Amino acid sequence: MAKRRLLLLLKPFDIYPVGQHFCQSRITNPKIFQFLDNRRKVHKEAVNFCQSILQRKAVDWEPVLRANLSQQIHNFDFVVTVGGDGTLLKASHFMDDSIPVLGVNSDPTKVEEVEEFGDDFDATRSTGYLCAATMNNFEQVLDDILDGRKQPSELLRMSIRVNSQLLSTFALNDILVAHPCPATVSRFSFRITRGDKSSTPLVHCRSSGIRVSTAAGSTAAMLSAGGFEMPILSQDLQYMVREPISPATAVSSLTMHGTMKPDEAMEMTWSSEKGFLYIDGSNVVHSIQYGDTIQTSAAAPHLKVFLPDRLESS
Fold first, then answer.
1. Please, which residues bridge with residue 79 across strands?
2. Across the strands, what pairs with 80?
3. Side-chain half-sphere of 97: how many Cα atoms within 13 Å?
4. DSSP-assigned letter for residue 169
5. 191-241: per-residue pLDDT in tens?
6. What is each CA distance from 114 to 2, 124, 125, 220, in whole angstroms?
7. Cys bridge to 244: 46, 206, 207, 221, which one at CB 3.0-4.6 A?
8. Alpha-carbon torsion 2, 4, 5, 10, what sign?
């Protein structure tokens, strides 16, 4: 039997600002420097640990730094990301629905640190919401995958069209459409459609922008803004207008936050001079301008993800 091929996608080691010059010029609290330096060391230890495990397994694997990933991932049986949710999101932008991905949280938050340093600084580490493994259980999870005991789940993604042109990146978490300046009003109109019919009236907005999320992204910025957590395998999308300015009617007020079914889409027209469309955070950004149309829906290939047990049972 041929060995399975695995792509190992790695968050860089130098992601934390702990150089000597930075420390002397910016960080006056030695506890913060020690914390950041420890984060770098813990991540590096996790990468080395995962590589040492893979060397003992009957797999062929290829390490790639996250920043160097620029082409579609093909000819691999599955992908392992070592970092956090951001590294898994980066991988998802180069994957179709044929290859599963396993996320390893290399630097999970330590409750005791948050309690100890909470009065001095934010001591949270990586959330790793979609990551099924850490150093503590990586070998067991890997063995379960290789032996067929653990199967991937299919997570919903979003497709985005700008002026009817399909963008190459599918959103796993969310999209945000907003003016480049956060202090400037975003002007746009939107409606929810099903086929060639409207499910909602056309709503004209002046606000801080609009966010649309999948179930996977509903626990991130959407939840922080007052949205609700969706079951991880939900096929619906959730949307919310950010900080709307005086909705003119009761109808528009009711449509500032809602959900879209799998057969529905959001159609939007941008009415500000310029704007940005952010996909899964700030790393994938598309410029838009006055008169551009944007359509988003669930018409995208799913992503196969090996989920943590807490999400598989939810």
1. 7, 101
2. 8, 102
3. 12
4. P
5. 999 998 988 889 999 999 999 999 999 999 999 999 999 999 999 999 999
6. 46, 6, 9, 20
7. 207
8. negative
